[in-house]
Amino acid sequence: MGSREIKSPEDMLETPASLEVDGRSRKKLGMFFIESDNRRTAFGRGYTGGTTPVDIHGKPIADLSKTGGWIAALFIFGNEMAERMAYFGLSVNMVAFMFYVMHRPFSSSSNAVNNFLGISQVSSVLGGFLADAYLGRYWTIAIFTTIYLAGLIGITLCASMKIFVPNQDQCDQLSLLLGSCEPAKPWQMLYLYVVLYLTAFGAAGIRPCVSSFGADQFDERSKDYKTLLDRFFNFFYLCVTIGAIVAFTLVVYIQIERGWGAAFGSLAIAMGVSNMLFFAGTPLYRHRLPGGSPLTRVAQVLVAAFKKRHVPSTRSELVGLYELPGRHSAIKGSGKIPHTDDFTCLDKAALQLKEDGGNPSTWRLCTVTQVEEVKILIKLIPIPACTIMLNVILTEFITLSIQQAYTLNTHIGKLKLPVTCMPVFPGLSIFLILCLYYSVFVPVSRRITGHPHGASQLQRVGIGLFISILSVAWGGVFERFRRGYAIKHGYEFSFLTPMPDLSAYWLLIQYCLIGIAEVFSIVGLLEFLYEEAPDAMKSIGSAYAAIAGGLGCFAASIINSIVKSVTRNPENKQQSWLSQNINNAKFDYFYWLLTVLSIINFCIFLYSAHRYKYRTEQTFEAWETKQNILAEDS
């Protein structure tokens, strides 16, 4: 397709669009969009793209009843469940594996895993780009899930073969604490990092595509489309949660009973089985044609707008804003998008001048739809950006709360729960909330808000962010009590010895709160991004959520490094807030710092959400414009 992605028709005279607000040609421009692709569900039930589903060969599906729907979604759910199981299984076990087996310091192990989690999510933009531009979502998932499996097999070999790990002889707990165990050789760490980041690369192609590909299985022209989409994203995240619960329980149990090789091997087996199920569902899937490189289209708009930045809207040789006549968009896999008044500087890219000629370069003249794609991508950024802080808290809880749990009593009666199982409780709270969502939350909130689904997407994101503040604030309160209790009862220097009279289940409060926050924020965000993203950029839109998660992991590492550097004073023998000895550290101060940052972030979100205008509202305004035109003509 090359650089001339959006083809301009030779007959430019058919393009009527003046920038004059009161001109008839400007009104005719609005007519082009409102007729595009018969958007039956635009008013009141969510924006739709009007694109036609195709089979794996790119041909229109004659009978939609034989494809898609919940049956096809189930095969996709299985793939996501296994990917999440592997992701959380690595996140909770890899820190301990690096510490106990590879003999790396706990802090560097945590940072390495945080970087792994961050890269696996930030690089999701690559998978989203390939899916939207060239491969389509199905083939992107198929290729990258195979890469993911190869990485898991490599990690299993690392944990199973002695050649890949340092000597474990004469390395007891005291030696680990003193750092006197034989360290891993550079090539051993290199191998571990290569296979670890290979799985991160595999996740980069799966994560932005799975939710969008699953949502593609539902008919957007169905009268129940909005309800089906809402339920799909809830069930999708339920599968994510089940995968996490299995990782935090069964995989941890396997590690304790059978060793590291069996634990990581179980993740590889689960991914292999899910891959087979995913491929088995191939005849049932509905596909969307890739619309060509979205980054090229974005670049074309920016370049064209820059070239015409000095062109005034009153110029005599100005023809108007350029758009293809008729119902169809110039972008494959996309419906037309009505013109909006946001970021008017970008409208210069669609300014059609007489000097442009009959077949101008797409790097000089873009369609209004292409310009609006870029506007939408820009307008979406603040919302997922505000969830970065939530992901910081989630990342910190995975590592810091495990350190807290090592000092606490994890017995339930006579049953001792492994410390690495503690993160299962947020998953259980998510599972419970999702099960009760439609029977409890929706009816109650519907009476309060009047919204048919209980709360809008942005309202759900806001509820989640608010609850996350409560979660991290409680974490600070409990940590202050826990540290005081440890010092009072003589555990100041025994930070790996559990205190029998202080239960670890006080951590359940912060775990449950962050689980509830995750349900509202992440599920609402995924649905918001899928509906609001341009038709030919759905995977890029979904990648925004993964990028926010990745940036949260990186931000957590950066915040940790800054706090350690600022609060540590070697001259006065003052340890940092995040020192390895948690009973001498100041984790409570750190939690309150996160609380303050979360409150600031929440205020920014409220401002951004208040200013955001859903695409349904803009489409409705275009519909009103059309009605006014028809009324004037009559």
Automatic annotation (TrEMBL):
<feature type="transmembrane region" description="Helical">
    <location>
        <begin position="231"/>
        <end position="254"/>
    </location>
</feature>
<feature type="transmembrane region" description="Helical">
    <location>
        <begin position="461"/>
        <end position="478"/>
    </location>
</feature>
<dbReference type="GO" id="GO:0022857">
    <property type="term" value="F:transmembrane transporter activity"/>
</dbReference>
<protein>
    <recommendedName>
        <fullName>Major facilitator superfamily protein</fullName>
    </recommendedName>
</protein>
<dbReference type="InterPro" id="IPR036259">
    <property type="entry name" value="MFS_trans_sf"/>
</dbReference>
<dbReference type="InterPro" id="IPR018456">
    <property type="entry name" value="PTR2_symporter_CS"/>
</dbReference>
<keyword id="KW-0472">Membrane</keyword>
<keyword id="KW-1133">Transmembrane helix</keyword>
<feature type="transmembrane region" description="Helical">
    <location>
        <begin position="504"/>
        <end position="530"/>
    </location>
</feature>
<feature type="transmembrane region" description="Helical">
    <location>
        <begin position="380"/>
        <end position="402"/>
    </location>
</feature>
<feature type="transmembrane region" description="Helical">
    <location>
        <begin position="142"/>
        <end position="165"/>
    </location>
</feature>
<feature type="transmembrane region" description="Helical">
    <location>
        <begin position="260"/>
        <end position="280"/>
    </location>
</feature>
<dbReference type="GO" id="GO:0016020">
    <property type="term" value="C:membrane"/>
</dbReference>
<dbReference type="Pfam" id="PF00854">
    <property type="entry name" value="PTR2"/>
</dbReference>
<feature type="transmembrane region" description="Helical">
    <location>
        <begin position="115"/>
        <end position="135"/>
    </location>
</feature>
<keyword id="KW-0812">Transmembrane</keyword>
<feature type="transmembrane region" description="Helical">
    <location>
        <begin position="589"/>
        <end position="609"/>
    </location>
</feature>
<feature type="transmembrane region" description="Helical">
    <location>
        <begin position="422"/>
        <end position="440"/>
    </location>
</feature>
<feature type="transmembrane region" description="Helical">
    <location>
        <begin position="85"/>
        <end position="103"/>
    </location>
</feature>
<comment type="similarity">
    <text>Belongs to the major facilitator superfamily. Proton-dependent oligopeptide transporter (POT/PTR) (TC 2.A.17) family.</text>
</comment>
<dbReference type="GO" id="GO:0006857">
    <property type="term" value="P:oligopeptide transport"/>
</dbReference>
<feature type="transmembrane region" description="Helical">
    <location>
        <begin position="190"/>
        <end position="210"/>
    </location>
</feature>
<feature type="transmembrane region" description="Helical">
    <location>
        <begin position="542"/>
        <end position="563"/>
    </location>
</feature>
<dbReference type="InterPro" id="IPR000109">
    <property type="entry name" value="POT_fam"/>
</dbReference>
